């Protein structure tokens, strides 16, 4: 059995804790590898390595650091097929989806080529008599990222690219469910010219996460995953005095106004509700048609589309809508929610529970499910299912639909489909959700904007990628100077409150 270890100090390191976790091929249901789960000692060794390497990296000028990113982008393009294949094999998503996963991370690396500009400080000449003030942005030191299974290429890159471009050393603790691609990314960074020890991949579970959160030399932690763990990581990391940002779960609504282009809205729901088997934090899981007429027109067009979704293993070609769920546990959880939705009184219009993939009967496949007449009190509405299950909640008016999305505890993404400019503008201005789409179902901001949810979808005051990340991974030092140094009458400016 293949064993996946760690990548520390620029080398592959075999796990020594004696603990491992199974890595499946979700299409076949077979265990394909074992991933090592790091002990505290193994984590500490990685942090020591990172700490030793970081000062020289921080002293490397930002332009040279950016050139590593430039080369990394080339290598990602060179190895795109290889990365996508390894990703699909452990995650289950289709190959086009896997390439999208790599590309959305690559775009962040591309943005980080602008590090010299993004790291510039500020300067004020003559802030007092003979007094100048300037500020510089310095890296924090050793920082860490803890990432989820659903984007094993994109989210690690969202974390380590800006952190490293800023001059930090990085400890990546990826998901134990699909650990191969994060290690391949670390190899490519080394090939791109990154010094050893600046990007370390430590595989593990709660033990490694707790080790990161408690370690005094980890200065900042970026987490992405489910909300319960995000809250835990945020509380424990902050209590240890670290800078922490955590991004959690979602329940993304899509309002369909009576004037929406219904074909466009249905296309959008099929892609955003069922793509990647619904295992996306930006998936649309709640459709809110406004008015009974709109709801009836929607159901008439949507139902046959959901019945005819094409489900296949990634090896079967590129035209499938989605593949299997990531693990048997994920399959059981999603199926359990569908059972619960029926018990709670929702109408299951399309039932995908009995779907079986011919030749892949042990794979973690489930068909697309569609619920109508879902209400606010049901657990299938309140909780994140993270599977190919779409709930339709009928609203009588725009205000009722808006209130529904606003009163949900999650606030990651949201969309409205309409041709009415007033409604679109009102919606974008009033909604209390971080990422908004107008006739765009999955409004993932591009790399040069920031990505982050509100409410219980995001904790911490700065978001991921975009210029925010360059603030998160640096701290500002402000320097006040008197020129010429012998000048006397600047004293009252330097300590104004003492006069
Ligand atoms: P998860 O919370 O199970 O795992 C995330 C990370 O936390 C993994 O590295 C895992 O090893 C670690 N972890 C798990 N249990 C832990 C524990 N008890 N203590 C400490 N660490 C622990 O999430 P997942 O299932 O891998 O990913 C899916 C979730 O991530 C969904 O809720 C999804 O909405 C969310 N997500 C959010 C965003 C976003 O930007 N908001 C993006 C992608 C995914």
Overall outline? globular
Bound molecules: nicotinamide-adenine-dinucleotide
What Rg do the Cα atoms give? Answer: 24 Å
Assign the CATH architecture of the largest domain: 3-Layer(aba) Sandwich
- Which sequence of strands runs across the widest sheet? 15-16-17-14-13-19-20
Class computed from helices, strands and strand pairing:
alpha/beta
> The CATH topology of the largest domain is what?
Aldehyde Dehydrogenase, Chain A, domain 1
- Total beta-strand segments: 23
Low-confidence stretches: none
Query: N-to-C terminal Cα separation, in Å?
Result: 74 Å
Quick one: CATH superfamily of the largest domain?
Aldehyde Dehydrogenase, Chain A, domain 1
Q: What does this molecule look like?
A:
- With 499 residues, the chain is of the alpha/beta class.
- The protein has 17 helices and 23 strands.
- The strands form 6 sheets. The chain has a 7-stranded mixed β-sheet, with helices on both faces. It has a 6-stranded mixed β-sheet with strand order 10-9-8-11-12-22, sandwiched between helices. Strands 1-5-4 form a 3-stranded mixed β-sheet, with helices on one face.
- Helix 2 packs antiparallel against helix 4 and helix 10 packs across helix 11.
- The relative contact order is 0.14.
- The structure holds nicotinamide-adenine-dinucleotide.
- Nicotinamide-adenine-dinucleotide (NAD) binds next to helix 8.
